[in-house]
From TrEMBL:
Residues 19-99 form the UPAR/Ly6 domain. Coiled coil: none annotated. This is Lymphocyte antigen 6 complex locus protein G6c. Residues 1-18 form the signal peptide. Keywords: Signal.
Length: 125
């Protein structure tokens, strides 16, 4: 019985102290994660995802590990009045729990492709 209890406690200790990793990247429309990496979460910290919107249109996301200098603080609809951007930050503490961020707004893809085509035609003239 003592052996089973000791085995259970050591398994629980290993599970609690296991390394927790977070996704780390800047995700932008069309290109996706520009510099995808993984970071090791420090004890007492959390993974974070910050999604940035212009109105209701997703602009980019920042995924990373929180640090003692910059810990994760959940915020919703935080607004930068200078740029008109809204920020939503979520925190989590399980292995790879911060999502790979939202997909681009469907209307944004045709707009970007049309803009690139127009630029290409302008450059050809």
């Amino acid at each position: 019985m003592k052996g089973l209890l000791l085995l259970t406690l050591s398994a629980l200790f290993c599970w609690v102290t296991a390394d927790v990793r977070c996704h780390s990247c800047y995700k932008v429309p069309v290109l996706g994660c520009v510099d995808r990496q993984s970071c090791l979460l420090e004890p007492g910290q959390q993974c974070l995802t910050t999604n940035v919107y212009l109105g209701k249109m997703w602009v980019f996301s920042n995924l990373r590990c929180g640090t003692p200098q910059e810990p994760c603080r959940e915020e919703f609809n935080k607004t930068s009045h200078k740029l008109g951007l809204n920020y939503n930050t979520t925190c989590c503490s399980k292995d790879n729990c911060n999502s790979l961020a939202p997909r681009p707004t469907p209307a944004l893809v045709p707009l970007l492709l049309t803009s690139l085509a127009g630029l290409g035609l302008w450059l050809l003239h």
